TrEMBL record:
Listed name of the protein: TetR/AcrR family transcriptional regulator
Keyword NADP set for record: no
Organism of origin: Solicola gregarius
DNA-binding region: 33-52
Assigned keywords, A-Z: DNA-binding
Entry GO MF terms: DNA-binding transcription factor activity; transcription cis-regulatory region binding
Database matches in InterPro entries: Homeodomain-like_sf (IPR009057), HTH-type_TetR-like_transc_reg (IPR050109), HTH_TetR (IPR001647), Tet_transcr_reg_TetR-rel_C_sf (IPR036271)
SUPFAM superfamilies in the record: Homeodomain-like, Tetracyclin repressor-like, C-terminal domain
Length: 192
């Protein structure tokens, strides 16, 4: 399943999705009801259900939009380093640091997984796709460098990526991303 949001939403649908996205990220998916979302969006529950079908549908749209937004944000950092090289790999860590300035509750996908795991919720597919996408990104970037084991090094970098986000937020460690970047640089230099 592609996470690209291809359907155009009405202005009311956009307001609902924007309100839900803010509330879900700040307070948690399960803690926010559709009444509150509709109220914040200046619409009715009927409009919410007409546009998204259910809270699950709205949650799925939130996760898809968040993934699209993150990928576009990251693309700007990678575009600044179009040639294969160490700096292109490290640009991902620079992107994480900038992203986290506005996303102080950590990874929205990890947060969603904590709430949705074991429920069969359709949003879990987006969470798993985002996590696989991060790993694939690093594997691809180090593959451009011609390293012997891009899957292994890409996996190590993905773990640094995820761990840095968790350590920054849940661990209250403001230096975690810088340390992860430094460690990533060492790993990449040693592999090349």
């Amino acid at each position: 399943m592609s996470t690209t949001t291809t359907e155009r939403l009405t202005p009311a649908g956009e307001r609902i999705l924007a309100s839900a996205s803010k509330l879900f990220y700040e307070h948690g998916i399960n803690a926010v009801g559709v009444d509150r979302i509709a109220d914040e969006a200046g619409t009715t529950k009927k409009t919410l259900y007409d546009r998204f079908g259910s809270k699950e549908g709205l949650t799925l749209a939130y996760l898809r939009r968040r993934y699209d937004t993150w990928r576009a944000f990251l693309a700007d950092y990678l575009d600044a380093h179009p040639d294969a090289g160490h700096e292109r790999v490290l640009a991902v860590f620079d992107a994480i640091e900038a992203w986290m300035r506005a996303n102080t509750r950590g990874c929205g996908f990890i947060n969603a997984y904590a709430e949705l795991a074991g429920t069969g919720h359709s949003g879990l597919d987006v969470v798993l796709e985002e996590k696989a996408g991060i790993r694939a990104l690093y594997v691809g970037l180090v593959g451009e460098l011609g390293v012997d084991a891009p899957d292994r090094l890409g996996g190590q970098l993905a773990l640094l990526h995820e761990g840095a986000i968790i350590a920054t937020t849940a661990g209250n460690d403001p230096g975690a991303i810088a340390l992860a970047r430094e460690t990533a640089e060492e790993l990449v230099r040693n592999a090349t």
